[in-house]
Amino acid sequence: MSTELTVSNIVLVAKQHEIEELRHLEARAQLVGDIGALIHCLQNERGASSLFLASAGARFGDTRQALIAASREREGALRTSFDTLLQHSNHGSAKLYSLMAWVLLGLDALPALRAQVDAQQLGPDEAVAAFSRLISGLASLIFEVADTTVNPGISRSLVALFNFVQGKELAGQERAVGAAMFASGQCDAPHQQRILDLIDAQERNFQVFCEFADETSLAPWQEMHVAPYVVILERLRRVLGSAKPGAALDANQSDKWFECCSDRLAAMWSLQCLQVERLQAQCAHLIAEAERELTDSEGLLTQLRNSPPPSAGLGERFFDPNIPIDHALRFTPTEGGAPPVERSIIEVLQAQSERIANMETELDSARRALNERKVIERAKGVLMARFNLTEEAAYKMLQKTSMDQNRRLAEVAEAVLALPAFFTPQPATPRR
Amino acid sequence: MSTELTVSNIVLVAKQHEIEELRHLEARAQLVGDIGALIHCLQNERGASSLFLASAGARFGDTRQALIAASREREGALRTSFDTLLQHSNHGSAKLYSLMAWVLLGLDALPALRAQVDAQQLGPDEAVAAFSRLISGLASLIFEVADTTVNPGISRSLVALFNFVQGKELAGQERAVGAAMFASGQCDAPHQQRILDLIDAQERNFQVFCEFADETSLAPWQEMHVAPYVVILERLRRVLGSAKPGAALDANQSDKWFECCSDRLAAMWSLQCLQVERLQAQCAHLIAEAERELTDSEGLLTQLRNSPPPSAGLGERFFDPNIPIDHALRFTPTEGGAPPVERSIIEVLQAQSERIANMETELDSARRALNERKVIERAKGVLMARFNLTEEAAYKMLQKTSMDQNRRLAEVAEAVLALPAFFTPQPATPRR
């Protein structure tokens, strides 16, 4: 059906377009929920796999099988979400699809990885690294959804959620590394440093989370800081952090470590679910609001259909220099003078323009947080390629420069990207 | 038709999605061309209307009628483009529709404006201001298209074009204001200052144009600086700029002023057409390239259909810690080892990820130029509302602070936006 080109029809189409975009956003919130749930299951499976391998298959075999079944169920749900996105190819960005393909490569590879764990062909560290790689790909998907969201409220919630999931992932890695250390019965320097790095990196993520989360999420987060398992965790962290390399560790503490880490992760998981629920409620609320506005606008504009075209009267008003217009096209109708029909169309358009302008401004702050991360990640990539560094070493190089020069980390990263002559990535050489 | 969820299908869908987005971009390039052409015609009509009114209807009556006919033709073309966008509501952003509605309000109001000019119910300044308002709305549409373009090459071209159109618009205003000054036979201080401001603002736009334009556009731009009409223009600019307020101006110079400004605008118009042609060629080239890549990928991936699922083999490669992966998911397949089918899918995905990552980086520089303008426009809006200033006065306030504090204009604008307590817009009060 063809729609006549009139101002009021464009206003209505813009509103319908907005509702459709919000519906896509609702589907994305579902996707983000599915991703978060699979990450949680894979974290559990990673922990159990690490303990299973560290104990040479003696322990955690049954737990691991139960956790694999849980992972599989969540994987199925995520594949359904992926499938929906694949069938509606206009809903995603090129980058989203590229990340999806990469994640699917990993999901397809999971059975082979599990078979290697079954046969104990991997060390605990290798298994942890493999699961972590897949989880990191899954987290990138959440980041991409946050990055392409145009609604400021949802964008803020997604920035908070992404950083929370990243922080939780690092907490999961901490559990796996620490459990392997205790189970091995001996402290070694690389694992010890890794634990300290993981604690540090968690702090950074949770800081951004606190900046962007709303009250509903912040209250349970504060409560988590006084929970009993935190006391145990901090004591065991101290044991791991202060032991001399080579010193013996009490292998029986492995369970206690695993348990308090798991309690903390379970609390995080509850909070993650709460955030996803809130996100979905936010989307539903926005859709209901936009639909109500559409109905209101339709009501206001219906009378136009039975009135003469508004051109003549509106003309004088459009070009009236006494009605100020700024770049955002907010113009203030003067009091009295105009008949109600004209006023209504100008008011609807004005309200719409005003809302769009406000949303743009609000969106900027959420975008800034995401952009800083992108710049830092890109600068890390340049340094990794240029100096053949690990990700952690590249990060430390940025961090050290930031502290030495008393400049923000993002500024240092910008500077690295602005000096391509010094840092152009070399042709990649296999590290074998 | 349902597509099976496999890595290779996602890779192909991502490619198809990219081609579809490029097609939308091609339609946008058409829209931008139509907008630019209408702006050009309205500029001509504005110049003739101003002279017609300044001469109390004695001159430029016929020229004006011919120019109105030309404007109408271009308006028809633009309405067709708008109509296409309205029928395919998924192609635009909420903001694009809001701007379209506003512009349509102005187009609907044009006949009433022309009737007022016919009846000489307006002064030349009022007529210039009315046309300028509509042209500024049209230019905002070009800005919005540039702002929502995700291809870095096209985005750069659109940033260059937008700034060129803005610069040309200011040159058109200069022609109209100067012609009215000469025709009135007397110099007055406000118009004199306006001419100087317009010359200044043109410089700023053409600077950004030069930064983002490619060689094809820069060469004719350089040639324009040594054209004969520029010598005449500069002499007449000097006459207008140095005359004492109240001093007599030679009304016969009005034609010469109009002529040399028109020659300059005609040259700009040619260059604008060249830019639009280049833009369309760029889009066509990108589509052809993406389609070739799609065919190549399909060729490479076809063999997968007849091969066993790649899960097992790829699995080891996905989790192989010796294949480094950075945040952009660029991973380097090791030499030898993998069968050709596996290598091809990894290579296709890798090439796609790499291209997306590079495009993101390139896009940033174009976005930065657009964002700076947005921040400055927003800060102007805040100052206008807060201190009840005109746009020009708000700009000067920013500029003065920038010079006094030796900080970039965009930084000052950021600071204005960061201090909401000082600058919160007051509820708008009608200025009548």
From TrEMBL, chains A, B:
SMART domains: ANTAR. Residues 276-307 form a coiled coil. Residues 356-417 form the ANTAR domain. The keyword Thylakoid does not apply. InterPro entries: ANTAR, CheY-like_superfamily, Nitrate/nitrite_sensing, WH-like_DNA-bd_sf. Pfam families: ANTAR, NIT. GO terms for molecular function: RNA binding. The keyword Acyltransferase does not apply. Keywords: Coiled coil. PROSITE patterns: ANTAR (PS50921). This is ANTAR domain-containing protein. It comes from Nitrogeniibacter mangrovi. The lineage of its organism: Bacteria, Pseudomonadati, Pseudomonadota, Betaproteobacteria, Rhodocyclales.
